[in-house]
Amino acid sequence: MMEVYRPEWCETREDWSVFLFSPQNRFRRVCQSIIAYKMFDYVVLAFIFSNCITVALERPKIMQ
Prior knowledge:
Ion transport domain-containing protein; transmembrane helix; high voltage-gated calcium channel activity; ion channel; 64 residues; mainly alpha; voltage-gated channel
């Protein structure tokens, strides 16, 4: 069987995000600190809820 090709740099950057951002990268640390706030969860849920409302209002006369 064919084996998955894994370049050498993949193994050395295994703990990197998207093989691009190191664990010490400033952008990655800022994103992690934003996601750690509980308010972030509420904001995401508010956007999902508002999206559901707008989809429902977009086509109110759907034939059933």
